[in-house]
Amino acid sequence: MFSKACTYGIRALILITQRSNEGKKIGVKEIAEVTSTPEPFTAKILQQLSRQGVIQSIKGPKGGFFLDEEQQNTSIYDVVEAIDGDQLMTGCGLGFLECSDEKPCPMHAKFKSIRASINKMLETTTLKDLSDDVEGGLSFLALKR
């Protein structure tokens, strides 16, 4: 459903949210290790998110990535849009360039209702919500290899 970059980014952001709640910053090496993601690709994703203001970073030995309270309340919709753009939310389910209510593809109506449900879930779920679920043992972030 999401691109690999987006899934890696969401994993990283959940971990960064957890560390930020503890008042800590976290480096890309540890993020990649804990979330089972490739370090160079993870670094590139985090750099993009930092440029867009989704996360903050400080360079140097005591540096790392972190989120303030407002950033922890970023919706997953906003994260997906920051990484993948709006294709998931607006694109054709079959990948056609032209697909609309006026000129629908065979999947348009079915995909439209599913997309509305997905969008609502993404808009109402925050990084903090997902972090709290992991902290509370309701979900997991990564399986050790």
UniProtKB/TrEMBL annotation:
Highest taxon listed in the record's lineage: Bacteria
InterPro entries in the cross-refs: TR_Rrf2-type_CS, Tscrpt_reg_Rrf2, WH-like_DNA-bd_sf, WH_DNA-bd_sf
One Gene Ontology term, aspect cellular component: cytosol
PROSITE patterns: HTH_RRF2_1, HTH_RRF2_2
Molecular function per GO: DNA-binding transcription factor activity
SUPFAM superfamilies membership: Winged helix' DNA-binding domain
A Pfam family recorded for this sequence: Rrf2
Gene3D superfamilies reported in the protein's UniProt record: Winged helix-like DNA-binding domain superfamily/Winged helix DNA-binding domain
Protein's name in the database: Rrf2 family transcriptional regulator
